[in-house]
Specification:
By secondary structure, the protein is of the alpha/beta class. The protein folds into two domains: 178 residues, Glycogen Phosphorylase B (Rossmann fold, 3-Layer(aba) Sandwich); 176 residues, Glycogen Phosphorylase B (Rossmann fold), CATH 3.40.50.2000. It contains 14 helices and 15 strands. A seven-stranded parallel β-sheet has the order 3-2-1-5-6-8-9, sandwiched between helices. Helix 9 links the parallel strand 11 and strand 12. Helix 11 crosses helix 13. The relative contact order is 0.11. The mean pLDDT is 93.
Length: 378
């Protein structure tokens, strides 16, 4: 029975922690012992409690910086000094727990990796993001140096998509690179509801975009495409749902809707506890992100039988199969998105809800992810 000491970088249930929570659930159900490290109490530790043996709170500082702001070496030095204490606390836990593996979730936090190195324990680094390309941050010492440190500190480096793995292939040897998909677990009663749904016979196309309201998610591109199609007489109703993490960008989106007279077509739903209710009624999911590392919400849509139109970047081409479960379009091109939406409108009745859902569930599930994790923690 393997024992894993696993570090989470944040307290809430963001995308990386949702993935980690599912990893914990899968491993817990198959005999693995997990001790969890968190920076503090929050929604994540509450949700994870039933799948782990113990939870320790150890606050550490991230080794990343916002690329939109000037580099500040003094801040880096302060964080490094403060992280000495975090590493020492983690080292004491490592020596007491004696795990088979120490694991780090996301690229942002190096403390557990350093403690594992000092404590002579195998370390596995799970990377769920590009960094600069999707979230606008980079490791303080630069990507190349950071990637080499990740490799040196880890026995294995795990990516949630082939696209992320490709970014690191010059720094992490092939034998150390592994893939672990999100299983994207959905309760049965949630995804069974729309399975036998027929394609809408109305002229209005109901589309959804879920996720944080931020420039990296590029919702503006969808608004521009909808305006272009409005000029051609197409009716598309778009619902945007998610946390606002950039107030200026949210204001910009709402101003565009007003200026383009799209108030009757675009709904800002805010954060929803159960976004699946939107997917159950949707004809289409749109993924406009500049570089989505994996595309968890795209998989959620597909598992519920909803076709996806996605930007041809990041991990989306690994999820969307052209003409089978949706379409891809050149990222950053609202005219191309408009043309792709028009193509979907013409062919929407060719997409089978049941077939899309079945194929997604065969590819992304607990059994598949368990096989990947067993190989990693062998």
């Amino acid at each position: 029975m393997k024992h894993i000491l696993w570090l989470s970088h944040e307290t809430d249930l963001g995308g990386a922690n949702k993935c980690l929570l599912e990893y914990l659930q899968v491993l817990h159900g198959h005999g693995y012992r997990i001790t969890l490290l968190v920076p503090g109490k929050g929604a994540f530790s509450e949700a994870a409690a039933e799948f782990v043996e113990d939870i320790h709170e150890v606050y550490g500082y991230q080794w990343i910086r916002d690329t939109r702001l000037p580099a500040r070496p003094l801040i880096l030095l302060k964080r490094m000094w403060r992280n000495v204490g975090a590493v020492l606390r983690l080292l004491r836990i490592v020596r007491r727990v004696k795990p088979d593996y120490v694991a780090t979730n996301t690229v942002t936090m190096p403390t557990a990796a350093v403690a594992a190195k000092i404590g002579f324990r195998k370390h596995v680094w799970f990377i769920h993001e590009f960094g600069e390309e999707d979230h606008g941050y980079r490791i303080f010492c630069g990507f190349s140096r950071g990637a080499r440190l990740i490799n040196w500190l880890s026995e294995k480096v795990v990516f949630n998509s082939e696209a992320i793995g490709k970014k690191y292939e010059a720094f992490v040897p092939r034998q150390k690179r592994f893939l672990a998909h999100n299983p994207v677990l959905i309760e049965e009663e949630t995804y069974l509801a729309p399975l036998h749904r027929q394609a809408s016979t109305t002229e209005v196309l109901h589309a959804v975009i879920l996720g944080q309201i931020a420039p990296s998610k590029n919702q503006m591109e969808a608004l521009q495409a909808i305006e272009q199609l409005k000029q051609k007489g197409h009716q598309i109703r778009l619902t945007l749902a998610g946390h606002v993490v950039d107030e200026a960008y949210s204001t910009q989106l709402k101003q565009y809707v007003q200026d383009a007279s799209l108030q009757d077509q675009v709904i800002f739903a805010g954060y929803l506890d159960n976004p699946f209710l939107l997917l159950q009624r949707a004809d289409l999911y749109i993924m406009c992100s500049r570089n989505e590392a994996f595309g968890r919400v795209s998989v959620e849509a597909l598992k519920m039988g909803v076709p996806v139109i996605a930007a041809d970047s990041g991990g989306s081409p690994e999820i969307v199969e052209e003409g089978r479960n949706g379409y891809l379009y050149p990222a950053g091109n609202s005219e191309a998105l408009a043309a792709t939406l028009e193509r979907f409108i013409s062919n929407r009745h060719q997409f089978s809800t049941a077939q899309i859902a079945e194929a997604a569930r065969k590819k992304y599930n607990e059994i598949h992810t368990l096989e990947q994790l067993r190989l990693i923690f062998a």
